[in-house]
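Comment thread on ticket #2218

A.B. wrote:
> Attaching the input chain for the structure job we discussed in standup.
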Amino acid sequence: MSERNFKISGRSRGGDVHIGHIKDVSAVLRLLDELREDLNDAQAPTSTIEVVDDLRVEARKPKPGRDVVEHLMEKLADRGLGEQVKELQKAFDVLF
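C.D. wrote:
> Ran it. Output below, let me know if you need it in another format.
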């Protein structure tokens, strides 16, 4: 399927929704799913997996909180996930 410059707008409880935002959120969620799967395979502590789950909840909000995301990213970076955090940060930056 070819990519086109459609702008589909609508109203939701959180405000305007457009297809670009949905694609950006999907990219973040995909990265979080991959990270969670890697953490499960590595039998990471539950607290680390919970941080990823909290980031997933934040990503699904119409307007994610930058402070909340940064705090959660710091927690992941402290647990030795620096490279994954950099990639996630870039994806989240698009949502702000």
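A.B. wrote:
> Thanks. Noting for the ticket: The chain has one domain: 12-95.
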